[in-house]
Amino acid sequence: MSIESFYEYPAGVALSRFLEGLRLGRLIASKCGTCNHMIIPPRAYCLKCYRPIKEYQTIEEKGLIVTYTRSFINIEGEPVNPPVTWVFVKFDGVDGGLLHILDPSINPQTGMRVRPVFREQRSGSILDIKWFTAA
Amino acid sequence: MDIWIAGVGEIPCRSRYDDMDFREMLYRAAVKAYFDAGITPADVDGIVSSGMDFYEGMSITDSYTPDQVGGRLKFNTLVSNDALNAFIHGCMLLRTGQFRTILVTAYAKASDILNYPEIVLNSFDPHLIRPLTPHFYTIAALDAQAYLANSGCEASDLSLVAVKNKRNALKNPSAAFAEDTSVEGVEGTEVISEPLRRGHVAAPCEYAAAILLTTERSLGEVRVEAFGFAAGSYSPDFSLKVWGQSRWARAAANMAFKQTRLRRIDFVEISEPFAHSELTVLEALGVVRESICKSLRDGDFNIDGHLPVNPSGGCIGMGYPLNAAGLQRLAQSINLLRTGKWSSCIVASPDGEVVDGGAAVVLSVGV
Q1: 0.80 cut: is pTM over it?
Q2: Which residue range(s) make up the domain with A108?
Q3: Measured on CA atoms in the order B243, B159, B271, B348, is the torsion positive or negative?
Q4: Which end of chain A is more exposed for a tag (fewer CB within 10 A), N or C?
């Protein structure tokens, strides 16, 4: 017998702001009104001073590649060809960052400036970003 | 209150045990531990089991645990994350003074899990990571790339780690993946996700171990000097991860070293799901003064080097038994200390392949 499990996860206040931002083609971070700490994806509380967050800001979408890999496997572990380049991107003046894939025409380098490419049809999902490309 | 290792039992790592289920595997390991200690289940006050319901696909797996390890009608608890965490919980139970002898158990039956990468994917953020469907090898590769970029190590150094561990495993009868290989041999394996090759990844294995802890001095020769546990900067969306570092290991080691006056560490055992994991944890433990890359290339971490690292063969040489990796490392460490060649070690084990959290334990004998 096989039992399927079904779950539905509310995104919460802060992440809902982020996902709504993606739907609008923007990157949204949270900003602490007490210590000014900014983080993406946004949090409902400040990780530095533990105060509640009430402010969310659109940030400059250009970021830089912290690390990258060209991956030759998919989630099942099966070979993929061409390989998919994965990147972790940080943004100036903002803590945190985003994991996503890179435009396959770009040769990745640590420290390379990149920007998100948004899809035309967006639904409020991390997949609203098609990929990051050279800025 | 001093805590001693009274007995150790394990069944060898194998790619797959077709002839036993996990309860039978645990039974065999527990019988060996009791025999090793010279005591019976009647002498044990409680059981701490390491288990991940999420992996096993069974809810409340501690209800499956007591029978086969001699724990019926006794204190029994299940501790998630790596088995080193269960071991630490066993130590803390003894320190309450309410228990004299505790059995800690762990097992891995990787072949029961038909879609392990997808199970691991479910541990990541459901909104930000799961829709992207990265294989956890890909996440590990991001970490490996960052480590190489920041440390000055090269991809071939990852192969050096793999060669060292596979060769060390040749002397370990419990190892499943021992091999007299070479850097060229590892470099010839397929690239999975740059810079990681197949040869840099510890293959999953099946395994069971049981370790008897006691406060009774007459029952043990290996002493638990200290332990520590810490979660690092992990978040399930990776946004706070410090890539290329195992920050948990520094915090866990600091916690442990505060509990002991022991300053000389003779060897290190690290659960390394990937070759770079050994290097990032080793760096964070703070037991190597020189450059990790230079020491590795100079052979300092070889079994006859200044500070042997994974002389047992590690997970790359023995096989990676999922959450049982910590107890696998501990069992090997106890056996190595009993040879009389060494008198102290530190054991470190992360809470999973790409998790920035884990535990460290310091053991000694005759000091």
Answers
A1: yes
A2: 12-134
A3: negative
A4: N
